[in-house]
Amino acid sequence: MSNSATAKTSTTASSPNSASNPPPAQQAPIEIVACGALAAHIREIAARRGWNLTVRPLPAALHNRPQQIAGDAKRAIAAAQEKGARAILAYADCGTYGALDDLAKEAGVSRLPGLHCYDLYAGEEQIGQLFAEEPGTYLLTDYLIRSFDKAVIQPLALDRHPDLWSDYFGHYTRVVWLAQQATAELEAAATRIASKFNLPLTRIDTGTTSLEAALAQVIEPPS
Question: Does the pTM of the predicted model rise above 0.85?
Fold first, then answer.
């Protein structure tokens, strides 16, 4: 608003900000309730696209307890909506067997497509093809490679009971790395993980294009 006396008292033709021509309503802020395994990529994409949003990650470790994801997500969505934000659920189904779809419908929010996070990197068709070709496929992502000890080894107590490895992973027949941004360091770490399986490593460079497209569909829906 202008600080001039004229602007405060003028009764001449309406300005674009006058009562007869109100400014456009301010859009509600956006809060992304995200899987912790996706959060960093979502922040990077949002910064590059200029999306004004806040990412609220839930612990990636919930993938080991998928029955808890919907409850934690519900609380995070409610907190966002209580502040007047538009909440978006940045999860695939992730082993919840439809619970996240039910939550999205109940809360009136959108969620990302797919059965699991891998679909958001490589697409449902390619992931389906990988498993059709070789059902014993173990999938890695950049995040899982970086957090393998914390996300897999420690929760399964393999650091204390390495003899259990074959019980958990003996049926796998190949390791496939869905690479979002391959580096020499990640390549070496992924190779070490594959060696634990006593299997070769296959790398598929997916980038984050599919994730970005899925986000754009819910953040910038067609008018």
Answer: no
